Amino acid sequence: MWESRSIPLAGFLLSPRMIAIFLFFTVLGLVFGIPFSNILQKGAVLGLFMIAGFVMAFKKVNMVPFELQLLYIILYRGPEKKKIETERAQVLQEESEQEMYVDSAVPLTFSGKVKTNEPERVVLYVDGAERASASVSPEKPEYRIYYYPGAGDVGAHTLTLMVGKEKIQEIKVVVKPKGGAYLDAKK
User: Pick from 121, 122, 117, 162: which is nearest to 139 by CA?
Assistant: First the structure.
């Protein structure tokens, strides 16, 4: 109904959408022409807005119409330029400690999504020192970071996952010496 060309006007078949866009731009032209004192300047501003409205009204719509895209940008994006939202695909318990062995074949995996308007780095810190990172962007919001404990990592550690300056996950890990996985399996 909104897109169907069913209204005959001046030799054209127009849709309600086309008429609404053209009238909207005409009203904008009248409003923006108010500050001008000369009638020719007011007419020029009105004419430019009417031409822009005509072009936008007759533009073919292949996907989401322009006016709905504009409404979405105004309502949902607003003036905020950088807002980071995270969705963790794997939620680890923050209170409990994880146990790992230096020779473990299975790493500790951090993965999830970060919604952001510009490229960001997701960084894994081990006791405050950067250990690994991944890049995310609006086109590629998913990240996956692995923590493989080394021989120098024996002992208790705090692993912190951050996006920019925002902490999104923190866990405590106890890394046991090499050969521990084999000994635990024999028990």
Answer: 117
